[in-house]
Amino acid sequence: MSAFLQSGKPPLILASESTARVRLLEAAGLVFIVEPAGLDEATMRLAISSEDGLDPQDVAEVLARAKAEAVSDIASAAWVIGADQVLTLDGAILSKPDSMEEARVQLLDLSGKTHILHSAVALASKGEASWAHIETAHLTMRKLTPQYIGRYLAAAGEEVLGCVGAYQVEALGIQLFEKIEGDFFTVLGLPLLPLLDALRREGVIEG
Asked: How distant, in Å, are the alpha carbons of 17, 117, 121, 156 from that of 205?
């Protein structure tokens, strides 16, 4: 299926270990290598978030560009996709929970409220990001009881620790929501349609 998309084209790398992003690109028929950037994302996110004048969407874009450029520095002949996602609740940026207890606390905070996901994607070659795009989605959780949250976490397992907000909307986490406003790909952390358009413009995939 993918031969006509990339035959004779430059190689493509995804600078992310995200299972959701890998599946989205595979489903779109792309052939690519997964090569994580190896950055200390937690430290970078904390440093960038503390800078004056940077909105949450700017934080997501800076991190997406940094990931793409870090891998592109090593694989200069390839096009590298970097992506990042920032979740905000009442203007505050949330981080991935470190434990199931932290996941429980996050879900209690998100319960019955609308939070915002800013998803950024960037393309880099020869060590420099030449394109980036940001999409935003608004997600409203149902009012959840502590008992329900406990049962949800037991069923979902520790995979939720890899997700800000302690949920995966492509899995059991969809049960937590009352309303989602925004592109499904954006919610999963990869604004796919703008990315595919950029890849076609750069000649990485067939137009």
From this structure: 22, 28, 17, 36
Where do the H-state alpha helices sit in 15-161?
A: 19-27, 41-49, 56-74, 100-110, 146-156
Q: Give per-residue pLDDT as tens, 15-46.
A: 998 999 999 999 999 999 999 998 877 777 77
Predicted model pTM: 0.91
Tokens for 70, please give them: 């870090």
Give residue limits of the domains in the chain: 3-201
Task: Return the SS3 of 87.
Answer: strand
Is residue 21 within 8 Å of 188, Cβ to Cβ? yes
Sign of the C-alpha dihedral, residues 171, 105, 64, 11? negative
State yes or no: is 84 an active-site residue: yes
> How many angstroms separate the CA atoms of 16 and 81, rounded?
8
138: left (phi over 0), alpha (psi -120 to 50) or beta: beta
* Residue spans of alpha helices (H) in the chain: 3-6, 19-27, 41-49, 56-74, 100-110, 146-156, 184-187, 192-201
Reduced to 3 states (helix: H, G, I; strand: E, B; else coil), residue 136 is strand
Read off the tokens for 146. Answer: 């502590």
Domain 3-201 of CATH type 3.30.420.40: no
Q: Which two tokens stand for residue 135?
A: 């999409």
Catalytic residue among 40, 52, 58, 84: 84
- Integer CA distances (angstroms), 27 to 30, 83, 128, 192, in order: 8, 17, 27, 11
